[in-house]
Amino acid sequence: MIANMPRHPSIVTQLAPSATLMQAVAKHWKEYLMEAAELATLMFFICSFATWIYSGESPVRHWELSNMTKSFFMGSAVAVTTWLIIHSPFGRRTGAHFNPAITLTYFYLNRVHRWDAFFYIIFQFVGGITGVLMAHELLGHRLSTPPVCYVITTPGGYGTIVAFIAEFVLSGLLMGIVLYATNMWPLAKFCPIMVAGITVLYYVLCPSLSGYSVNPARSFSSAFFARIWQGIWVYFAAPCMGMLAAAMTYLRKRGPEKVYCAKIFHDPHSVCPFNCHFDQLCRKP
Question: Taking a C-beta distance cutoff of 8 angstroms, is the pair 181, 191 a contact?
Fold first, then answer.
């Protein structure tokens, strides 16, 4: 675990940066596939949990749960899945972005090379679609028919503007927590559990506002199969803008030298594909 590792610069094994497209593919193709697998896993379980909790054919319907209780169960299940993915060998290797908005933000912060950012984002979308496809093959009409409907995210009853504001604020808070946690030594080891905790909170508070996405690839994957594109621009624009706003605020407060790496959880035993300075954080008293 990160808390037990020695504070010595040699703990960080960094892959060489990718100057060209072909170099990026040659050096980091494994990370691209891992990112796809991570989001495929997340989407598969999001679809599976939603079917189990919300489908009219699920045995859970006999429990007569309130909407808030269902949201809590759904958020808890997704939070645990997210935590496990971050701590998995794939998540430790790639940084566990599985979100184009996070990758774009770290590209803005100069911690991800442009070609790596490009392929990370492409493979995140591919992974999301793959995960929903696998869930559809397993769950069939229980996933595709209402009220589950591929777990699409659409603006709630308060309208598109409110949904945009909700996604913008939630995305910004999430990225802000990630940036402050991963770049402060006492908090770095707790970042995955913070992400999991805020996931539960968001699911409980926001289903009636925006459905809670903060991830363009997550929303696109569901909309792709449901063929429902209502308000899809919200789920592309708001997460990216919210996370970029959080990054800009962080830079003003702490400066670019206080962004050490692009990993959500930095495992010293996994190589780092990014412009990594995590060893500097490790040397701090």
Answer: yes
Contacts of 165 (CB under 8 A, 6+ apart): 238
CATH value at residue 106 = 1.20.1080.10
Q: Can you give the pTM of this predicted structure?
A: 0.90
pLDDT per position as a tens digit, 52-97: 998 878 787 778 788 888 889 999 999 999 999 999 999 999 999 9
Cβ–Cβ < 8 Å for 214, 101: yes
Is 2 part of any domain?
no
Cβ-contact 273, 28 below 8 angstroms: yes
DSSP string, 83-120: HHHHHSHHHHHH-S--SHHHHHHHHHTT-S-HHHHHHH
**Does a structural domain hold residue 1?**
no
Q: HEC profile for 127-169? A: HHHHHHHHHHHHHCHHHHCCCCHHHCCCCCCCCHHHHHHHHHH
Q: Rounded distance, CA 235 to CA 186, Å?
A: 33
- Number of domains the chain is built from: 1
For the chain, how long is the longest CA-to-CA vector? Answer: 57
Instruction: State the residue range of the domain holding 38.
Output: 13-283
What are the counts of helices (DSSP H) followed by strands (DSSP E) for the chain? 12, 0
Residue 260 lies in a domain: yes
Residue 143: inside a domain: yes
Given a cut of 50, the residues of the chain with pLDDT beneath it are 1-13, 15-16
Whether omega for the bond prior to residue 155 falls within 30 degrees of 0, making it cis, is no
